[in-house]
Design a protein that fits this description.
Helices cover 26% and strands 15% of the residues. With 478 residues, it is an alpha/beta fold. The protein is globular and about 60 Å long.
């Protein structure tokens, strides 16, 4: 790592209004900017980082986001002796690590606890979903909820910094989101060129597909090879393409664009039918399991940053983890989603080890905060999965940024145990307290980015640190 600050300045076109739609939906209907143009933006004239030769440049991160915030009490930090006002109906179970106990809803993870570490003492200062998400993902210290982020999230920063090292050799994008967290995070002043390539939908459905990946219509491919602006609707095109002859006529950025669209390995990486059915079963034949399997395939194929959200029908009535009593019956909600969550996370951790990816790939599972240790009660606003009919009084837990847990695996870290701790009721982090800056610095360290000395110029041209306060967590530094 360098011992001086490196300042990166996004080019004048890096703030690209209106381009998010392209990055969210693929190339369909996009008419204002070519994919080669985006690749040019990502490789614009800033110098590469001082650590460009680092072996960590090949490291990758998968982040699983739990929107709304998972209860730390009903997962990794149970408090069975805290009293009826605080403890829920679930018992605790021993894990593979002596003296380490989880909520009984996590039996699969408990059985492989030697393969990951739980950070129990996370804390941030924002009680709202927008501000809490921005604190954890970008380091914004503001406690006020804002409609859009002021600072770029760590995923966009990584995508930007790595783009400065030159065009990617892999045909796949550096940053992919499979139903990723959106809305409370983003590239901010880096511009939408550094947003994720978004894959939407349920990978478990037999009809699931990613539009515009792998073209097979020869005439269409040749026509695209003669055009640098990819403005046509490419939904129905597929691949039969002689790269050696056709791509030679394109410049390096157009070649990258064509590679994304036509490379057989690209299409194969997104195609879960290539997986052994037993592996698919192991991850779970449900949306979250197949999202995790697809994440592993894409990371193995060369993606650097992969984000995915565990949301939707598997969460219950309100389709997230925001278990206020008015939304959900918190205990029914946790039980409803626990089996799919436990299975998907366990399968990915085991698979990373089985395939020798546990050093290069770091897995982080977290939400923006935890839930109140003290149980609240209110009338349900609507019935559905894990929620009683409207008007029924049911238990809930509210937002709680003062103490929460996240899971870390892979990355060559020392695994098998807890880092930090909370008080007897789980209300406050009291041991080895970590904040958003520590969270971000740890991820950057794994990716080979010197968070202490890396600055990026903001909208006004001011050099802005990617981490203002915080250091890599020593126990999580591989």
């Amino acid at each position: 790592m360098s011992n001086h600050s490196t300042v990166f300045c996004p080019g004048p076109d890096s703030v690209c209004s209106g381009r998010r739609g392209f990055l969210q939906t693929g190339l369909t209907g996009f008419a204002s900017l070519s994919l080669p143009g985006i690749l040019r933006l990502q490789a614009q004239s800033a110098k590469a980082a001082d650590d460009s030769g680092s072996s960590r440049d090949k490291n990758a991160v998968i982040m699983v986001w739990l929107p709304g915030g998972m209860s730390h009490i009903e997962s990794y930090d149970p408090k069975p002796n805290s009293g009826s006002e605080y403890s829920g109906p679930f018992g605790t179970i021993p894990t593979a690590i002596p003296g380490m106990h989880f909520c009984e809803l996590m039996p699969r993870q408990a059985a492989i606890a030697e393969k990951f570490t739980i950070l129990r003492s996370m804390r941030q200062s924002a009680g709202g979903h927008p501000a809490g998400s921005m604190q954890l993902l970008s380091g914004d210290p503001d406690t006020r909820d804002k409609p859009k982020p002021r600072y770029p999230d760590w995923m966009s920063v990584t995508n930007y910094v790595r783009s400065l090292k030159g065009p990617r050799k892999e045909p796949l994008p550096g940053y992919v989101g499979i139903n990723p967290p959106m809305g409370y995070n983003g590239p901010a002043y880096l511009g939408d060129a550094h947003s994720p390539f978004v894959v939407s939908g349920d990978p478990n459905l037999p009809t699931f597909s990613v539009p515009n990946i792998g073209l097979t219509n020869t005439n269409e491919v040749r026509r695209l090879g003669r055009r640098s602006s990819l403005r046509q609707n490419l939904d129905t095109l597929e691949r039969t393409f002689d790269q050696q002859r056709e791509l030679a006529a394109l410049d390096e950025f157009e070649s990258q664009a064509m590679a994304l669209l036509t490379n057989s390995k690209t299409k194969e990486a997104f195609d879960l039918s290539h997986e052994d059915p037993r592996i698919r079963d192991r991850y779970g034949r449900h949306q979250w399991g197949q999202q995790m399997l697809l994440a592993r395939r894409l990371i193995e194929a060369g993606v650097d940053v992969l984000t995915t959200s565990f949301a939707g029908p598997l969460c219950g009535r309100v389709q997230n983890w925001d278990d206020h009593a008015v939304n959900m019956h918190v205990f029914d909600g946790m039980k409803f989603r626990a089996a799919a969550y436990d299975q998907a996370v366990t399968a990915l951790i085991e698979d990373l080890h089985d395939r020798g990816l546990d050093k290069r790939v770091m897995l982080v599972v977290t939400g923006e905060f935890g839930r109140t240790p003290k149980i609240s009660y209110a009338a349900s606003t609507g019935g559905g999965d894990a929620s009683a009919p409207a008007g029924t009084i049911q238990p809930g837990r509210d937002h709680w940024p003062r103490a929460f847990s996240n899971l870390w695996a892979g990355g060559g870290i020392q695994t098998g145990g807890f880092i930090g701790g909370t008080d007897k009721r789980g209300e406050d982090s009291i041991e080895r307290i970590c904040g958003p800056g520590d969270f971000l610095a740890t991820i950057y360290h794994h990716l080979g980015i010197d968070s202490a000395n890396t600055l990026i110029k903001d909208f006004n041209g001011r050099p802005t640190p990617i981490v203002d306060h915080g250091k890599p967590i020593p126990e999580l530094m591989g």
